[in-house]
Write the structure tokens for this entry.
Amino acid sequence: MLIGYNQATSMKRSSVETDVAMCAKHGFYGLEMQTDLMDKYMDGHTPAELGDLFKRHGIKCLPINALLSLYYNDESVARLRYLCECANGGGAETVLVAPIKSGNDMTETINAINSFVSIASEYGVRLALEFLSFDFVGVRSLERAMEVAAQVPGLRIVIDCAHAMGGPTDTDTILKLNPEQIEVVHINDLPYKASGFYADSDRLWPGEGNNGLDRIFKNLMAIGYDGLVTVELFNEEYWELPVDSIYSAAMSKTKDFLRDYIKL
């Protein structure tokens, strides 16, 4: 299993240059860029320079996170083309799609994603859909993401553990997946809350919660998943730590948790 790093884990301390260097220093396979931070880098650089940065440090440009729309319009098409150009330059194979504030019905969503997949294919880039458990989102569960993927050839799925634990997903649904359908697993943990309401800032280091992360990984192991996991937390308390400490904890906590399931 390959361990990557997502910039959301150190958002306050992050930049593309800093995080590429930190990934190399701490032994991460690669960096999953958040698009707002990538945009800042791209304001003064070309896609080719982005690729050179990753090559110099010997790490992989992981899936770009993300196209935040399931609406097919001129704005979203232009944004997707830009993200695909960045993926090509950086060496990423995938752009993630996240259904932020989608009011689409399922037919509109599926039609939009089919169109996005066709556009991404022009660049040799694939797309992966991340379900989000928030109430205002149209694709809130793994079950719903699988329904979409069943009607969009080539679309992969992202499993964010916090959204799987904190929303309507039955994590045993993982057992119905072909492991090749999974693009990336965002690893993080959550405390149990009786209210059932979770914010991104509730995320904890892997192994420090009590909301079912063990079951998610037991199910992933049961289907033979051995792909990419990226550490993705939005915990604002962690953002206050020195960046080197954040990276050190991200790797050590993730390895400690995963040792119960796999050989690293």
In short: The first helix runs from residue 16 to 26. Residues 84 and 122 are 9 Å apart (CA to CA).
